[in-house]
Amino acid sequence: MLLGMLMASSLDASVKAIVSDISLPQIVFLRSVFSLPVILIVCRIEGGGLGGLKTTRPGWHVYRGLLASGASFGFFWGLGHVEFLTAVLLAHISPVVVVLLSKPVLGEPVRLVQWVGITIGFIGVLVVVDPAGLDFHPAALAIIGSSVCWALLSLSNRKLVGVEPAGALLFYMVPIAAVIGLVLAIPDWTTPSARELYFLMYAGVASGLLHLFVLIAYRHARAATVAPLEYSTLVWSALAGYLFWAELPTILVVVGGVLILTGGAISIRGGVNSEPAAAS
To answer: Which of 217, 69, 208 is nearest to 152 (CA)?
Structure first.
């Protein structure tokens, strides 16, 4: 899981390094293209090979592909306008959104302790965004919108797990995002420089390895054990922000980030405690 989170942070850093030099649709398209071979390898490891890509629910995969595209476009655009660590912190509101949407989407009740976590997380977002301050940028809203897309994608995983092959759930998001990126990129297509291609290739490979490492982690350890390690992205992101962009978080970002992470931990922990123990 730690290696997976390192891949996640380095993927985001690679995109931030070029997001002001190349169009966003091209980034989404080329990142998807370069990630596809690694994703296919991951599907192979998961089992079933190409046979595991068969599906009887194409509509669900189109829906998931649109959500994955929305998550990428929103977050990548936000990376170009807000500080790196701030963007990553705002993206961590996703667990809170998952709990908030679990009732209307899945029909799962939300416990009181989870409402406490949702409230704390929302306050943290307000602190980080600081809408009354001069540093507020609409890109922060794009990142929050990206987190909503990611939360809906996570909820669809819960709804389809055991119904659709794992390989199909992983694979179809990639070509759908690639097609959307290509259609939007064609009118203003520019040839990427060697530097841009390097970062895009790395982002694609890192995206595939992220899925592989997370898959291995959840296969060999309980979710409650490995999920908290997702917060290690903050260490890598803070280090990258300082080394590459000389970014130092403000006190509001630190305080708001702590509230977001606390709210997310309470929300998810409250849900775990409410679930019956699995039969051995």
So the answer is: 69
Q: Where are the domains of the chain?
A: 2-273
Closest by CA position to 257, among listed 134, 123, 138:
123
Give, in order, the Cα–Cα distances in Å from 216 to each of 11, 164, 174, 207, 222.
Answer: 19, 19, 20, 15, 11
Number of neighbouring beta carbons within 10 Å of residue 58: 10
pTM here is 0.81
Nearest alpha-carbon partner for 126 in 112, 140, 114, 113: 140
DSSP three-state, residue 164: strand
> Which position has the token pair 């090979």?
49
- Contact between 259 and 121 under an 8 Å Cβ cutoff? The reply is yes
Query: 139-160 and 94-106 are packed helices; what angle lies between their axes, rounded to 10 degrees?
Result: 50
Token reading at 133: 């301050």
Helix axes 173-185, 58-79, angle to 10 degrees: 60
- Whose CA is closest to 52, among 156, 169, 145? 169
pLDDT one-digit tens code per residue, 145-155:
998 998 888 88
Query: Which tokens is 39 given?
Result: 């994703």
Nearest to 98 by CA among 267, 269, 272, 256: 267
Compute the distance between CA of residue 57 and CA of residue 222 in angstroms, rounded to an integer.
29
